[in-house]
Amino acid sequence: TEDLKRERQLAEDLLHQMLPKSVAKQLRKSQKVEAENYDQVTIFFSDIVGFTSIAASCTPLQVVEMLNNLYVCFDSRIESYDVYKVETIGDAYMVVSGLPERNGTKHADEIAKMSLDLVAAVRQVVIPHMPTGRLQLRAGIHTGPCVAGVVGYKMPRYCLFGDTVNTASHTESTSLPQKIHISSATYDALLTDDAYEIELRGEIEVKGKGKMKTYWLLGNKNYSVQN
């Protein structure tokens, strides 16, 4: 009985690494997981600058080892914040705050603190086959409504949908090395407690939305994450 309990706990822990607890609970009861609408969440995307050329100069095993080092570092850091890691796709890392558990107006603040932490942390990630090299992160953040739900029944995935996801992805792709690019919606959400150093970037062209005013998130006035 003890062995069975232990095995069951291991299986549950593994499931909770892949799906939110509330979603896993519904799936275990063989319930259909209903898609849910969220009025306000904040979404973070990042990727590695020059990843294609770095990968081209490595063996497949070295690429996996490098990404594993990076994501183990990131995964351990984000546990300090009220965020949910949605997925990694190659060198892209996607995190959200405000779902599946709603956290009022805290989501932008949580993602902002986390992103400053990750941009500082990436400098400390050691790449075994590039001892003198350092990875650089490009990050983007956007705040807005979205829908979340489970897609598929083989390897079910908890996915986010909506224009907010696309815009967050676009802020990331138009960002610069070691910079955190935020939308005006995230800027407005962060203004409430005046805790951040933010600089106007200007206007960027967003596909299907026209010109959008964006900003650089430079730091937090109350604490430093450089260590």
TrEMBL record:
Bilayer topology annotation: Single-pass type I membrane protein
UniProt superkingdom: Eukaryota
One GO biological process term: receptor guanylyl cyclase signaling pathway
UniProt domain Guanylate cyclase: residue ranges: 42-172
The keyword Lipoprotein belongs to this UniProt entry's keyword annotation: no
Enzyme Commission number, as recorded: 4.6.1.2
GO CC annotation, single: plasma membrane
Keyword Manganese in annotation: no
Key words of the record: cGMP biosynthesis, Glycoprotein, GTP-binding, Lyase, Membrane, Nucleotide-binding, Receptor, Signal, Transmembrane, Transmembrane helix
GO molecular function: adenylate cyclase activity; GTP binding; guanylate cyclase activity; peptide receptor activity
UniProt subcellular location: Membrane
InterPro entries to which the protein is assigned, alphabetical: A/G_cyclase, A/G_cyclase_CS, Cyclic_nucleotide_synthase, Nucleotide_cyclase
Family: Belongs to the adenylyl cyclase class-4/guanylyl cyclase family.
Protein name: guanylate cyclase
Highest classification ranks of the organism: Eukaryota, Metazoa, Chordata, Craniata, Vertebrata
